[in-house]
Amino acid sequence: MTQKPAPIREQTRSVVRSLLARTAIELFAAKGFDNTTLDEVAAAAGVSRRTLFNYFRNKEDLALSGLDEQGELIAARLAERPADEDPWTALRTAFQVLGEIDMTAERRLEFITLLFGNDSLRAGHTEKQARWQDLFAPHIEPRLPDSDHRTLQARAIAATAIVCMQAANEEWVRLGGQADMFDLYDTAVQAIRRPS
């Protein structure tokens, strides 16, 4: 029996993981996160519960799995920005990768509503975004003037940008998706950066 090369296995695993997560999000949106069991997700995806646990630790991990991928995509886009670009402009451009993710506005609205409407998912979301800070800060730090506090400043900028994006997401949901997400993000950032 021939084994598939590692890159193909990893790519297959990623595709299956994505399909399982998508199935789960659809069920969570239709029935509610708390009212949906892992057995129902497995059945809808046509896999066993055991297979589901090969890809995800628990129900929260299943619902929030896309956030890890999003953080990595944003960090990769941030790393591609010109070295002399200021951190806020670089972050704004990097965040635009979120708009390129293959998800309809309706589905995005369902997902974000689900995310912010459940306490355990909201807590998990906050934890995942704390990891984003670790991903972004190393790409921000070289853009700042050399100082003893440059690492702290980079982490603070990353954390603030993430909170501004979260505030924009929440406002977007409040408006029923009838606004431009990045205009809302810009408004949030302007509120933070406005000179007193």
Short description:
Helices cover 73% and strands 0% of the residues. The protein is an all-alpha fold. It starts with 5 loop residues before the first helix and ends with a helix.
Task: Walk me through what this model shows.
This protein has helices at residues 6-31, 38-45, 49-55, 59-80, 87-95, 105-116, 119-140, 150-174, 181-193. With 196 residues, it is mostly helical. The protein is globular. The mean pLDDT is 88.
Name the helix and strand elements from N-terminus to C-terminus, one letter apiece: HHHHHHHHH
The outline comes out as: globular
Low-confidence stretches: none
Largest beta-sheet characterization: none
- Distance from N terminus to C terminus (CA atoms, Å) equals 69 Å
Number of strands: 0
Topology at a glance:
Elements: H1 6-31, H2 38-45, H3 49-55, H4 59-80, H5 87-95, H6 105-116, H7 119-140, H8 150-174, H9 181-193
Based on the model shown, name its key terms.
196 residues, mainly alpha
